[in-house]
Amino acid sequence: MMNNLEMLILDIKKANNCIPCTIPYHPYLKAPENICNFLDYFSIQHNRDFLIQALTTLYCWIKALDHEIDNESVSGEIAIEALVTPSLLSKSSSSTLKKLTPALSLLIRPRQELVIADFKKALKADQNKRCAQEMKEYIEARKNVGRCIANTTFSFLQPYVCLSDSFVDFYRNLGETGDLIDAIIDFHHDRKNGEYAFTPNGKDYLKLFKTTSQKVVHLFISYPFLIRSIPKHVAPFLKTLIKARNS
To answer: What is the Cα–Cα distance from 215 to 219, expressed in whole angstroms?
Structure first.
């Protein structure tokens, strides 16, 4: 007879089967394994099979939501509330978002209020990013988005993993840096599509590039194990991310 965790893994796997195997989703499908590798480095015990499935649900739900917001198919506020009342998505949104929502709702149940609150903070941070009036403000807003997503991940993981302060500091720094790297990759696309509230120029791009480079160097100095992981994990992930953005 299967125990509760085994049944939960089966339910999550079933939901995850709806995730499109398309290029835009590839970074979100690779991220869970990288996170588990980070947990290994910090000697944090975890059920790898379960966490990979659970984090796949979390990050692909975020990707599906981002897609829906960009297409104006559903508001972020409604999608977050649907984690409490999944039927709110019955008349709109993609099948991916609808199918992942009940599974994610099940996963966040142990700390539902906290995870919902963190999702709302992340959504607000993303909205503030789009209102920045200059590059300096935009950079800080992007870093805040990264922190908010990291904090949401912590709230999501805490019922299942005992996170150390050192891992939290690391992953929060990684979140900030990762969102700045996203900003560089997306710069020309976002400028072309009016994602900025101001009109960024070459100097703005250099300012963004300089800040991001400084964050990357600081991250590698603070966590040398990342340097060793470049060939196997970091470089392939960045390649997948760039390919996804250009698809």
So the answer is: 6
